[in-house]
Design brief:
Layout (H helix, E strand, L loop, with lengths): L5 H4 L7 H7 L8 E5 L6 E7 L3 E2 L4 E2 L5 H4 L8 H6 L8 H6 L9 H4 L4 H4 L9 E2 L12 E2 L4
Parallel strand pairs: 2-5
Antiparallel strand pairs: 1-2, 2-6, 3-4
């Protein structure tokens, strides 16, 4: 195992900021607006994405300021990765928190950032910005992700 396989040996809490950020595969799924069923607590994804999401690059246009600009944007931490079911089941943070390996398409495994798009994991081209959807109409945008 090489030093490049840090995610296999380094606990989430011990990762450097660069290692932590490298875990993100760039799928954009965490940027999707979600609805929670008040009766079951189950999270449902929509095809509506945060206004700061760049669909072509599949990333946040204001990543460093996201918590200030979007107060309910949740920063993923090791604790969040272990406890929040809204993280996609393909998310590297969640997978590692659950003791599972990364998928073969993950850039850390494949060595190719484009492998995420080839595996159809990203939300690029599959979403609409929240700027164009009234909050009362979110339930019309529910879907089983990925779709």
């Amino acid at each position: 195992m090489s030093d490049n396989d840090f995610w296999k040996t380094t606990p989430l809490e011990a990762m450097s900021e660069a290692q932590w950020e490298a875990l993100c595969d760039g799928c954009g799924r965490c940027c999707l607006l979600k609805l929670e069923d008040v009766d079951t607590g189950e999270t449902h994804y929509t095809n509506v994405v945060c206004r700061y999401h760049d669909d072509d690059a599949c990333n946040c246009t204001c990543y460093a300021e996201r918590s200030r600009l979007v107060p309910d944007c949740i920063k993923v931490t090791p604790e969040v990765a272990r406890s929040e079911a809204w993280l996609p089941d393909t998310c590297a943070y969640r997978l590692l928190a659950e003791g599972k390996p990364l998928f073969d398409w993950h850039p850390l495994v494949s060595g190719d950032p484009a492998s995420v798009r080839r595996a159809s994991i990203t939300i690029s081209g599959k979403v609409v910005s929240e700027e164009y959807v009234h909050p009362d109409e979110l339930d019309a945008h529910l879907l089983n992700w990925p779709d």
